[in-house]
Amino acid sequence: MTVAAFDIVSLGEPLYEFSQIPNDAGRFLQGFGGDTMNCAVAAARQGARVAYVTRLGDDEFGRQFLELWRKEGIDTSAVAIDSQAHTAVYFITHGPAGHVFSYLRQGSAASRMQAHDLPLDLLRNTRYFHTSGISQAISASACDAVFAAIEAAKSAGAVFVYDSNLRLRLWPQARARAVITATLAKADYFLLSMEDAEALCGLSDPQAIIDWCHRAGAGIVALKLGAGGVIGSDSLRRECVAGYKVDCVDATGAGDCFAGALLARMAAGEEFWQALRYANAAAALTTTGYGAIAPMPKPEAVRELLRRG
Questions:
Q1: Are strands 189-193 and 220-224 parallel, antiparallel or unpaired?
Q2: Of 32, 12, 27, which is closest to residue 252 (Cα–Cα)?
Q3: Whose CA is closest to 108, among 82, 80, 140?
Q4: Which DSSP string do the residues of 289-307 spell out, in sequence order?
Q5: Distance (Å, rounded) from C-alpha 6 to C-alpha 12?
Q6: Does domain 10-308 fall into CATH 3.90.78.10?
Q7: For residue 268, what is the DSSP state?
Q8: Strand 15-21 to strand 24-33: parallel, antiparallel, or no bridges (unpaired)?
């Protein structure tokens, strides 16, 4: 039996991050973000063998990403450098309703991904393939690349994990619904938030949302409830895992950390339900620091929270 080179391959757009320090409008912390990239880092920190597929600009932000991934142990053999485009950037500021995101991503290197440029050998050599609705929303060519990557990975036996991560600032709601619904039908695992679910299917009851996901073709569903925890469903069994009371200061990247931790624990051999509880704890810990990457926990911190209950 051939052993896959990677536990997880994730595909998407990384964004260089400037996060405003609360109550200090003129100061920003520099960091890294992007939903699929956050997932990749979270999984690597839990010990998984991870590769990331993307394009970076030939700029200082791109070089800092490569250095980050080297330190985190993420394979970058499928990261292309685009001399004609920039690495995407985003800003996190804080307003009365919470954190606000502003983006400089139009025409980014990652948005120039093409299906014919995909690293097919790498995609066919992983146990789990992960991507998101954001990866599809950044451009038509990136959307085509996502569908081609799903086909390549699944045809080789990979498990497909899909996070809706709906961002209506990136594409019209009708197109988002159509594309995400078509993609979740291919998903072995579908991850979504309550906010995304309400926009996608017009429902607000968690149980009805999960029913909709299964009817649309999703295999196993994880409905993220924020501070309320998560509901998992495999169509035969449903379980609600309560949230943790932590000193939350910034929820940026929590859902992405959830995805990465879930994948890493399943890749390590844990069943979905056990991995779900672990991922729920990891996501809670991520909210106790600022930015997407810096507060993502190592396994010892997650296990300590699980022990405390």
A1: parallel
A2: 32
A3: 82
A4: SSSSSTTPPPHHHHHHHHH
A5: 17
A6: no
A7: T
A8: antiparallel
Length of the chain: 309
- pLDDT given at position 187: 98
Instruction: State the residue for tokens 């485009």.
Output: 85
Among 246, 248, 237, residue whose Cα is nearest residue 271: 237
Task: Work out whether strand 79-82 and strand 15-21 pair parallel, antiparallel, or are unpaired.
Answer: unpaired
Q: Which residue, among 287, 275, 208, has the nearest Cα to 247 in the 3D structure?
A: 287
Q: Return the structure tokens found at 240.
A: 């609600």
The whole-number pLDDT of residue 1 equals 45
Tell whether pTM > 0.90.
Answer: yes
Beta strands in the chain (DSSP E): 6-11, 15-21, 24-33, 50-57, 79-82, 88-95, 98-104, 126-132, 159-163, 189-193, 220-224, 230-233, 238-241
Beta bridge partners of 223: 192, 231
User: Phi and psi dihedrals of 168, rounded to 5?
Assistant: -75, -10
Average pLDDT of adjacent 10-residue blocks, the chain of 309 residues: 84 93 80 95 98 98 98 98 96 78 92 97 98 98 98 98 95 97 98 96 97 98 96 96 90 94 98 98 93 91 92
- Domain definitions of the chain by residue range: 10-308
Burial-class residue 181 by CB neighbours within 10 Å (0-12, 13-18, 19+).
middle
Q: Provide the residue type at 58 as one letter.
A: D
Torsion-angle region of residue 209: left (phi > 0), alpha (psi -120 to 50) or beta? alpha
Helix (H, G, I), strand (E, B) or coil at 187: coil
- At 57, the amino acid letter reads G
User: How many Cβ atoms from other residues are within 10 Å of residue 308's Cβ?
Assistant: 8
- Cβ neighbours of residue 276 under 8 Å, at least 6 residues apart? 222, 230, 232, 239, 241, 262
CB-based contact 55:81 (threshold 8 Å): yes
d(CA 76, CA 58): 15
